[in-house]
Specification:
Blueprint lengths: L2 H10 L1 E4 L5 H16 L3 E3 L18 E3 L12 H8 L2 H10 L5 E9 L8 E4 L11 E4 L2 E4 L1 E7 L9 E4 L12 H4 L18 E4 L6 E4 L9 E7 L9 H4 L2 H4 L2 H4 L4 H4 L16 E3 L5 E3 L3 H6 L1
Antiparallel strand pairs: 1-10, 2-3, 4-12, 5-11, 6-7, 8-10, 8-12, 9-11, 13-14
Bound molecules: 2-oxoglutaric acid (AKG).
Protein backbone atom coordinates (compact mmCIF):
# COMPACT_ATOMS: atom_id res chain seq x y z
CA UNK A 1 0.00 0.00 0.00
CA UNK A 2 1.60 3.26 -1.06
CA UNK A 3 1.53 6.43 1.04
CA UNK A 4 -0.89 7.96 -1.48
CA UNK A 5 -3.24 4.99 -1.27
CA UNK A 6 -3.05 5.04 2.52
CA UNK A 7 -4.00 8.70 2.50
CA UNK A 8 -6.93 8.13 0.14
CA UNK A 9 -8.17 5.17 2.19
CA UNK A 10 -7.89 7.05 5.46
CA UNK A 11 -9.65 10.16 4.14
CA UNK A 12 -12.42 8.55 2.09
CA UNK A 13 -13.02 5.07 3.57
CA UNK A 14 -12.61 3.17 0.32
CA UNK A 15 -9.95 2.42 -2.27
CA UNK A 16 -9.97 1.02 -5.80
CA UNK A 17 -6.84 -0.91 -6.82
CA UNK A 18 -6.74 -0.95 -10.61
CA UNK A 19 -5.97 -3.84 -12.96
CA UNK A 20 -5.52 -6.39 -10.23
CA UNK A 21 -6.75 -9.36 -12.22
CA UNK A 22 -5.09 -10.43 -15.46
CA UNK A 23 -7.31 -11.15 -18.47
CA UNK A 24 -6.73 -14.85 -17.86
CA UNK A 25 -7.89 -14.58 -14.22
CA UNK A 26 -10.88 -12.48 -15.27
CA UNK A 27 -11.88 -15.06 -17.87
CA UNK A 28 -11.55 -17.88 -15.34
CA UNK A 29 -13.77 -16.15 -12.73
CA UNK A 30 -16.29 -15.11 -15.38
CA UNK A 31 -16.51 -18.72 -16.56
CA UNK A 32 -17.41 -19.74 -12.99
CA UNK A 33 -20.06 -17.02 -12.85
CA UNK A 34 -21.50 -18.29 -16.16
CA UNK A 35 -21.74 -21.70 -14.50
CA UNK A 36 -23.48 -20.22 -11.42
CA UNK A 37 -25.95 -18.24 -13.55
CA UNK A 38 -26.67 -21.19 -15.86
CA UNK A 39 -27.28 -23.40 -12.81
CA UNK A 40 -30.07 -21.02 -11.79
CA UNK A 41 -28.31 -20.03 -8.57
CA UNK A 42 -28.97 -16.30 -8.94
CA UNK A 43 -32.03 -15.38 -6.91
CA UNK A 44 -34.04 -12.25 -7.69
CA UNK A 45 -35.69 -10.53 -4.75
CA UNK A 46 -39.04 -8.78 -4.97
CA UNK A 47 -39.11 -5.37 -6.66
CA UNK A 48 -37.68 -2.49 -4.61
CA UNK A 49 -36.16 -4.94 -2.14
CA UNK A 50 -33.70 -2.93 -0.07
CA UNK A 51 -34.92 0.42 -1.44
CA UNK A 52 -37.30 1.13 1.46
CA UNK A 53 -39.25 4.35 0.75
CA UNK A 54 -36.62 5.83 -1.54
CA UNK A 55 -37.66 7.12 -4.95
CA UNK A 56 -34.15 7.16 -6.44
CA UNK A 57 -33.31 3.59 -5.41
CA UNK A 58 -36.49 1.97 -6.76
CA UNK A 59 -36.28 -0.80 -9.32
CA UNK A 60 -36.56 -4.50 -10.03
CA UNK A 61 -35.51 -6.96 -7.31
CA UNK A 62 -31.84 -7.21 -6.44
CA UNK A 63 -30.06 -10.28 -7.79
CA UNK A 64 -27.62 -12.28 -5.67
CA UNK A 65 -26.30 -15.83 -5.88
CA UNK A 66 -28.16 -17.85 -3.35
CA UNK A 67 -27.99 -21.30 -1.82
CA UNK A 68 -24.45 -22.44 -2.50
CA UNK A 69 -21.39 -20.61 -1.23
CA UNK A 70 -19.08 -19.95 -4.19
CA UNK A 71 -16.21 -21.45 -2.17
CA UNK A 72 -17.98 -24.81 -2.10
CA UNK A 73 -18.77 -25.10 -5.79
CA UNK A 74 -17.70 -28.46 -7.26
CA UNK A 75 -14.13 -28.58 -8.51
CA UNK A 76 -12.79 -27.06 -10.69
CA UNK A 77 -15.37 -24.23 -10.39
CA UNK A 78 -14.46 -23.28 -6.81
CA UNK A 79 -10.80 -22.83 -7.67
CA UNK A 80 -10.81 -19.40 -9.40
CA UNK A 81 -12.98 -18.14 -6.50
CA UNK A 82 -10.68 -19.64 -3.87
CA UNK A 83 -7.76 -17.99 -5.64
CA UNK A 84 -9.32 -14.62 -4.77
CA UNK A 85 -9.66 -15.45 -1.07
CA UNK A 86 -6.00 -15.01 -0.14
CA UNK A 87 -4.91 -13.21 -3.31
CA UNK A 88 -1.58 -11.40 -2.81
CA UNK A 89 -3.28 -8.01 -3.21
CA UNK A 90 -5.83 -8.91 -0.52
CA UNK A 91 -3.06 -9.97 1.85
CA UNK A 92 -0.97 -6.90 1.11
CA UNK A 93 -3.77 -4.41 1.74
CA UNK A 94 -5.73 -6.14 4.51
CA UNK A 95 -2.59 -6.64 6.58
CA UNK A 96 -2.46 -2.84 6.72
CA UNK A 97 -6.19 -2.09 6.86
CA UNK A 98 -7.32 -4.78 9.35
CA UNK A 99 -3.99 -5.83 10.81
CA UNK A 100 -2.26 -9.21 10.64
CA UNK A 101 -4.51 -12.21 11.12
CA UNK A 102 -7.51 -10.83 9.21
CA UNK A 103 -10.08 -13.49 8.33
CA UNK A 104 -13.10 -14.05 6.12
CA UNK A 105 -16.16 -13.32 8.24
CA UNK A 106 -18.86 -14.14 5.69
CA UNK A 107 -19.45 -14.35 1.96
CA UNK A 108 -18.42 -14.34 -0.78
CA UNK A 109 -21.58 -12.78 -2.22
CA UNK A 110 -22.15 -12.52 -5.96
CA UNK A 111 -24.15 -9.51 -7.19
CA UNK A 112 -25.58 -9.92 -10.68
CA UNK A 113 -27.71 -6.78 -11.12
CA UNK A 114 -29.22 -6.18 -14.56
CA UNK A 115 -30.45 -2.92 -16.08
CA UNK A 116 -33.18 -1.49 -13.86
CA UNK A 117 -32.22 -3.44 -10.72
CA UNK A 118 -33.05 -1.51 -7.55
CA UNK A 119 -30.44 -0.03 -5.26
CA UNK A 120 -29.89 -0.51 -1.55
CA UNK A 121 -30.37 2.21 1.06
CA UNK A 122 -27.15 3.60 2.46
CA UNK A 123 -26.08 2.16 5.78
CA UNK A 124 -23.06 1.98 8.07
CA UNK A 125 -21.12 4.86 9.65
CA UNK A 126 -21.76 4.02 13.24
CA UNK A 127 -25.56 3.95 13.07
CA UNK A 128 -25.81 2.26 15.47
CA UNK A 129 -22.24 2.41 16.70
CA UNK A 130 -20.72 -1.01 16.33
CA UNK A 131 -17.25 -1.29 17.76
CA UNK A 132 -16.46 -4.46 15.79
CA UNK A 133 -16.49 -2.60 12.47
CA UNK A 134 -15.12 0.73 13.68
CA UNK A 135 -12.02 2.41 12.25
CA UNK A 136 -9.35 3.94 14.41
CA UNK A 137 -5.62 4.62 14.70
CA UNK A 138 -3.16 4.09 17.49
CA UNK A 139 0.62 4.36 17.60
CA UNK A 140 0.83 4.90 13.86
CA UNK A 141 -1.18 1.78 13.00
CA UNK A 142 -4.62 1.79 11.46
CA UNK A 143 -7.32 -0.67 12.42
CA UNK A 144 -10.62 -1.38 10.69
CA UNK A 145 -12.81 -4.14 12.14
CA UNK A 146 -14.62 -4.87 8.89
CA UNK A 147 -13.37 -4.47 5.33
CA UNK A 148 -15.23 -5.75 2.30
CA UNK A 149 -13.20 -6.64 -0.76
CA UNK A 150 -15.23 -6.46 -3.97
CA UNK A 151 -13.85 -8.11 -7.09
CA UNK A 152 -15.34 -6.61 -10.22
CA UNK A 153 -15.72 -8.87 -13.22
CA UNK A 154 -17.56 -6.36 -15.41
CA UNK A 155 -17.20 -2.58 -15.66
CA UNK A 156 -19.12 -0.36 -13.23
CA UNK A 157 -19.01 3.06 -14.97
CA UNK A 158 -19.12 6.10 -12.68
CA UNK A 159 -22.64 7.28 -11.78
CA UNK A 160 -24.24 4.34 -13.55
CA UNK A 161 -25.02 2.23 -10.52
CA UNK A 162 -23.46 -0.30 -8.22
CA UNK A 163 -21.37 0.45 -5.13
CA UNK A 164 -22.09 3.90 -3.70
CA UNK A 165 -20.70 5.55 -0.60
CA UNK A 166 -20.30 8.79 1.30
CA UNK A 167 -16.55 9.41 1.25
CA UNK A 168 -15.31 10.52 4.66
CA UNK A 169 -18.43 9.34 6.49
CA UNK A 170 -16.41 6.97 8.68
CA UNK A 171 -15.31 10.13 10.50
CA UNK A 172 -18.79 11.68 10.67
CA UNK A 173 -20.11 12.65 14.08
CA UNK A 174 -23.74 13.26 13.16
CA UNK A 175 -26.66 11.05 12.08
CA UNK A 176 -27.20 10.56 8.37
CA UNK A 177 -30.13 12.61 6.97
CA UNK A 178 -32.86 10.47 5.46
CA UNK A 179 -32.35 12.14 2.05
CA UNK A 180 -28.79 10.81 2.01
CA UNK A 181 -29.82 7.34 3.20
CA UNK A 182 -32.38 7.17 0.40
CA UNK A 183 -30.18 9.06 -2.13
CA UNK A 184 -33.22 11.24 -2.95
CA UNK A 185 -31.48 14.34 -1.62
CA UNK A 186 -27.87 13.36 -1.18
CA UNK A 187 -26.55 16.95 -1.01
CA UNK A 188 -23.68 15.93 -3.30
CA UNK A 189 -22.18 13.71 -0.61
CA UNK A 190 -22.63 10.37 -2.38
CA UNK A 191 -20.09 8.93 -4.80
CA UNK A 192 -20.71 6.08 -7.22
CA UNK A 193 -17.12 5.50 -8.31
CA UNK A 194 -16.06 4.16 -11.68
CA UNK A 195 -14.65 0.66 -11.29
CA UNK A 196 -13.46 -1.45 -14.19
CA UNK A 197 -13.42 -5.21 -14.74
CA UNK A 198 -10.31 -6.54 -13.04
CA UNK A 199 -10.22 -3.75 -10.43
CA UNK A 200 -10.67 -4.57 -6.78
CA UNK A 201 -12.49 -2.30 -4.34
CA UNK A 202 -11.79 -2.15 -0.59
CA UNK A 203 -14.32 -0.39 1.63
CA UNK A 204 -14.85 0.08 5.35
CA UNK A 205 -17.99 -1.99 5.60
CA UNK A 206 -19.79 -0.69 8.65
CA UNK A 207 -17.54 2.25 9.41
CA UNK A 208 -18.24 4.03 6.11
CA UNK A 209 -21.74 4.89 4.87
CA UNK A 210 -22.29 2.81 1.75
CA UNK A 211 -24.97 1.05 -0.28
CA UNK A 212 -25.92 0.47 -3.88
CA UNK A 213 -27.22 2.68 -6.68
CA UNK A 214 -29.68 1.20 -9.19
CA UNK A 215 -27.92 -0.51 -12.09
CA UNK A 216 -28.28 1.51 -15.31
CA UNK A 217 -26.03 -0.38 -17.70
CA UNK A 218 -26.97 -2.64 -20.60
CA UNK A 219 -24.51 -5.25 -19.38
CA UNK A 220 -25.05 -7.10 -16.08
CA UNK A 221 -23.10 -6.34 -12.96
CA UNK A 222 -20.73 -9.04 -11.83
CA UNK A 223 -19.22 -8.20 -8.47
CA UNK A 224 -18.13 -10.67 -5.80
CA UNK A 225 -18.01 -9.31 -2.25
CA UNK A 226 -15.74 -10.98 0.31
CA UNK A 227 -16.57 -9.82 3.83
CA UNK A 228 -13.39 -9.79 5.90
CA UNK A 229 -12.88 -8.88 9.54
CA UNK A 230 -9.89 -8.17 11.69
CA UNK A 231 -8.73 -11.10 13.83
CA UNK A 232 -10.71 -10.05 16.90
CA UNK A 233 -13.86 -8.72 15.21
CA UNK A 234 -16.96 -10.77 14.49
CA UNK A 235 -19.42 -9.34 12.00
CA UNK A 236 -21.80 -12.21 11.40
CA UNK A 237 -21.42 -15.46 9.55
CA UNK A 238 -21.52 -18.64 11.61
CA UNK A 239 -20.80 -16.81 14.85
CA UNK A 240 -24.31 -17.27 16.24
CA UNK A 241 -23.95 -21.02 16.24
CA UNK A 242 -20.43 -21.24 17.58
CA UNK A 243 -20.74 -18.52 20.19
CA UNK A 244 -22.81 -20.57 22.64
CA UNK A 245 -20.95 -20.88 25.97
CA UNK A 246 -20.98 -24.68 25.82
CA UNK A 247 -19.27 -24.61 22.41
CA UNK A 248 -16.90 -21.72 22.97
CA UNK A 249 -15.76 -23.00 26.38
CA UNK A 250 -15.36 -26.52 27.71
CA UNK A 251 -18.66 -27.81 29.06
CA UNK A 252 -17.23 -28.26 32.56
CA UNK A 253 -16.22 -24.63 32.74
CA UNK A 254 -19.75 -23.31 32.20
CA UNK A 255 -21.78 -26.19 33.62
CA UNK A 256 -24.04 -25.13 36.49
CA UNK A 257 -23.44 -21.41 36.08
CA UNK A 258 -26.17 -18.91 36.88
CA UNK A 259 -27.71 -17.20 33.87
CA UNK A 260 -25.91 -13.99 34.79
CA UNK A 261 -22.54 -15.78 34.89
CA UNK A 262 -23.33 -17.60 31.66
CA UNK A 263 -24.15 -14.27 29.99
CA UNK A 264 -20.48 -13.29 30.05
CA UNK A 265 -19.28 -16.66 28.72
CA UNK A 266 -20.57 -16.31 25.16
CA UNK A 267 -18.02 -16.45 22.36
CA UNK A 268 -17.59 -13.37 20.16
CA UNK A 269 -20.83 -12.71 18.33
CA UNK A 270 -21.87 -9.44 16.84
CA UNK A 271 -24.88 -10.56 14.92
CA UNK A 272 -27.99 -8.79 16.17
CA UNK A 273 -31.06 -10.92 16.59
CA UNK A 274 -29.14 -13.73 18.24
CA UNK A 275 -29.82 -14.88 21.77
CA UNK A 276 -27.04 -12.77 23.16
CA UNK A 277 -27.67 -11.62 26.67
CA UNK A 278 -26.57 -8.36 28.16
CA UNK A 279 -26.12 -7.55 31.81
CA UNK A 280 -27.48 -4.37 33.32
CA UNK A 281 -27.28 -2.96 36.82
CA UNK A 282 -30.51 -2.09 38.58
CA UNK A 283 -30.81 1.04 40.71
CA UNK A 284 -30.34 -1.13 43.79
CA UNK A 285 -27.08 -2.54 42.39
CA UNK A 286 -28.50 -5.93 41.36
CA UNK A 287 -27.20 -7.50 38.13
CA UNK A 288 -30.01 -8.30 35.72
CA UNK A 289 -30.19 -9.97 32.29
CA UNK A 290 -31.44 -7.69 29.55
CA UNK A 291 -32.38 -10.41 27.06
CA UNK A 292 -34.64 -12.80 28.90
CA UNK A 293 -35.49 -15.04 25.94
CA UNK A 294 -32.97 -17.75 26.69
CA UNK A 295 -33.58 -17.64 30.42
CA UNK A 296 -37.29 -18.25 29.87
CA UNK A 297 -36.47 -21.25 27.68
CA UNK A 298 -34.20 -22.65 30.39
CA UNK A 299 -36.77 -22.19 33.19
O1 LIG B 1 -23.46 -2.86 -4.02
C1 LIG B 1 -22.47 -2.88 -3.31
O2 LIG B 1 -21.36 -3.14 -3.72
C2 LIG B 1 -22.61 -2.53 -1.83
C3 LIG B 1 -23.23 -3.64 -1.07
C4 LIG B 1 -23.48 -3.27 0.36
O3 LIG B 1 -24.07 -2.27 0.67
C5 LIG B 1 -22.99 -4.14 1.41
O4 LIG B 1 -22.31 -5.11 1.10
O5 LIG B 1 -23.25 -3.85 2.60
Amino acid sequence: MTAKERYYWDVTGHLVVRNTLSQEELDAVNAVLDFVIDAGSVHQNEDNHGAADSTFLRGAGSRWAHGTNLLELPKPHCEPIRNLLAHPVVVQYLNVMCGAGFRLDHGPQFNNAVKGTAGLTLHGAGEPHRDFVAYHHQNGEMYCGGVTVTWNLTDCPEDKGGFACVPGSHKSKYPMPIGVRYCDEDMGTVANPGIRAGDVLFFMDGAQTHGTHPWQNDHARRSILFKYASRTATRGGPSQAVCQPEIFWDGDTVGGMTMQQRAVMFGPCSAPGSDEMFLVIEDDGAVRLENMREQQAAD
